[in-house]
Amino acid sequence: MNYFEYMADPNRRCAIVAHRGIWSDAPENSLLSIRRAIEAGYNVVEIDVRRTADGEFALVHDDTLERMAGVDKAPEHLTLSELTSLSLRNRDGGPSNPLTDEKLPSLRDVFELTRERIFIHLDIKHRHVIPEVIAYARKLGVDKEVDFWADLKTEADLVWIRANITSQNVPFIARTHLEHDDWRKQVKLALELKPLICEASFRDLSQVAAVQQHFHDAGITLWVNTLDSVASPGFTDSAALKDPDAIWGRLLRAGFSVIQTDEMAALRSYIETRKPEIPRKDRAAV
Fold it and tell me: Are 47 and 18 in contact (CB under 8 A)?
């Protein structure tokens, strides 16, 4: 099953996206954190990708390597060999977490680990690098196992995405900001593009209710983040741990069928034990 088929499967449960792998006792964005997400049976793992000085790709979230490797340099200024020689700090890094034996991984190492085992959500930190990563994923034969993500706010975004991503027949996630004043325009752009998935953030959940049927009719899967740092107001992992039905349950009932979280085990437990009803009509992944 490829990424397109998985998302369109009418019988699947809500997809759980493991943010930077399972980093509760492993460095984020490390092969160990990704391997643990695979072993735990999660559906998708999110990783952060940057281009190296010699045109390769490595897993780094920040603009510098200070937090995760104690090196105050931009990853784009180092070669792949230099980057993959660096030891990673445990968990989410910083001086309070010790260095581990885990090295900073290349994207090739990740693809070899994840191939046919888990889908990947690629957060590529610079949009102009996306076409290069698409070509790289295709070269390694994993282009139908990964997704590509970009903001869709303007007509110029729509033109760029069509030319550089959706024309390549790869899974694409459009980011739509319902919390912005021009949110209706952004919804219109998404419905015109018809991406596989739309990641929606919002001011109020009622905004999702207002557009959910339109996305359903267009065959677009709805994705939401509950990560504390980027979640829509009130819909955080921390709040979900206290009252999962009030957070994750409401999101599922509103039509989201993909949730990115740092609390994967708690979300899976909620889905398995509560079996929250997810509205699904003639097509499931909405």
Answer: no
Q: Where is 224: in which H helix or E strand?
A: strand 221-225
CA distance 256 to 274: 16
Task: Provide DSSP, 101-127.
Answer: EEEPPBHHHHHHHHTTT-EEEEEESSG
* Predicted pLDDT at 284: 39
- Look up the pTM and report it: 0.94
Beta-carbon contacts of residue 174 (< 8 Å; ≥ 6 apart): 150, 151, 152, 161, 189, 190, 193, 195, 197, 198, 199
Which pair of tokens denotes residue 130? 């996306």
The whole-angstrom separation of Cα 182 and Cα 65 is 36
CATH 3.20.20.190 fits 3-49+117-274, yes or no: yes
Tokens of 152: 């869709």
